[in-house]
Amino acid sequence: MTLPSGILLAAFAAAALSLGRARLGIGSVRVRRFAPRAGDAGAGVRYAFTAAFLPWAKESASAHVVSYLAGVLYHAGIFTMLICLLLSLAAPQAPPALAGALAVVFGAALAAGVGLFVKRLFDVALRAVSVPDDFLANLLVDAALAAALAAALVPGAAFVFQLTGAALLLYAPVGKLRHMLFLVTSRRLWGAYYGRRGVLP
Amino acid sequence: MNAPDAGRSRSDTAEAPAARSVPGTSATEAALRLLEAGPDAATAASLEACVRCNLCAESCHVFLADGESASAPAAKVQQVARLYRRHHTWTGRLLPGLVGARDLDDAALADLVASAFGRCSQCGRCTLNCAVGLDPAAAIRFGRAIAAAAGLVPAGIWANVTAALETGNSMRIAPDEVRETITWLEEDLRASTGDPSVTLPVDRRGARVLYALNPREIKFFPLSISAAGQLFHAAGERWTLTATDFDITNYGYFAADDGAGREIARRLYERAEALGVETLVVAECGHGYQSLRWEAPEWLRRTPPFRVVSFVEVLDEYLTAGRILLDPAKNPARVTLHDPCNLVRKGGVIEPQRRVLRAAARDFVEMTPNREKNYCCGGGGGLLAASEYAGRRVQSGRLKAEQIRRTGAAVVVTPCHNCIDQLLELNRHYGLGVEIRTLAEVAADALATSPTR
After folding, report:
1. How far apart are CA B273 and CA B253, in angstroms?
2. Is residue A72 assigned to a domain?
């Protein structure tokens, strides 16, 4: 194993441990079971993780189509980047046949990330709710996406991608990137709440 | 870079009420204890996962009405999350500036009150529309709970809590006064309907249904009780009112003081059990339904031995079963429907009132948006009792006023007495020239001959 791969592996382990500890820290979710249900909590959860993502399902998406699309591209790129990062432990260089497709995904995600950074910087209402962590987290993700893009296009750049990715993973438990963990819990509860009460789907 | 203060203004801070004294401890210490104990895991997940995208801003009627960044749900969540991070995350303890963590002190408490009470009606529209799938309303409610622990609940809201705890109802109405009012209403109802057999029974043993009231009905809107009585009579229902612990309102719920909420709800549950009814029917009141149908079983950790339903659902059941017949020609004016947030978006009672209204009125039109997507009237969350926020409450009702005006309706129906009070004020303030009515009143006016009579 190369040194960058070793650092990356340690960063994966540290992030997993720290995020796991944070999840345990909020305790177990109390199941609301005494009020008789009026609908299907399971159907609500399924809706939360499927149709509720569609752009017309929520005003937050339908009223902000550009931000919604930027968010979709950004997160699609991040998921792809994390998978590539994990696979890089076994094969540091992505298969050449995939390089073009990966470059498109990472390039689009990077553009979206920069766009969201600029929006946060100049949108008065958004800046009012922002903290330094919002900007730093975005920059770290953007840097990792840029490194992933470089690694896809430039042979030999994989170590940069691995080290940048390690830095991102080490930062993940620090601030807002923790949402990658908690949103799963929260979104499940969101669906269960509306499903059980017969409001959605 | 310093963490911004989510648009805090001096006027907000000045609006915050003085703390009621908590024996043996300071207000801040009491709040700190609650904060350190932490919210439930579901609320904590929302506080942890909010990415401050602010895409929920336009889902909030308060933000849409005043345009102030501090009114955006993300800003209100942020007021709570900053305190949460300081006490529950290691980065909040070590690097507060990076993550915007903040110590809980008097200034933070004042900001919290101004935000969680002054700028939020707990309507939950932000939750429905949260892009991430969080519950901003629950996070803001935790802010209310911290304020409650410090004794900083707006005095008008807290007065209703103490009244309910001390006397069994939030308006301190004595049982004799309830009986006198009901007796008078019964005589009036017999005279107006010409039917000597119609009754408004009180504390009747053997009744199948207990119809529990909002005290405002007894004090200010007794005709809604008469209307319900007419409809129960027409359906041939074995029903009763009660003179003690009859109150469906629960300002403990608004104050986010679950201990008080539990105690208030427990009394009505026990009254229903003592009367041996099969069904507790909650009069037209959004938060009363929310607290009795959905929250009380969790507070009390038991499933009640009776059904808890809204009167709206009961009317729909009578209509579907053919127990009442309604003639829409008796309500010829154009009618629209306002959806109380606690009954509809957070309660799941969405279609019954529409079926009843279609049967009871000739020209029923929906406002836009409607159902679970409807806007709050602005009077939720106990804000009608918080006079210090009256200006913003009426301002935040502007969207509702515009919705109503666009329908061209002459009558606005809403199954909630809180909403009725707010809509009456919006009607005057925005010159809408509409009539505001309960569903029971419209349905009672539409009563045709009943198959059960």
Report:
1. 22
2. yes
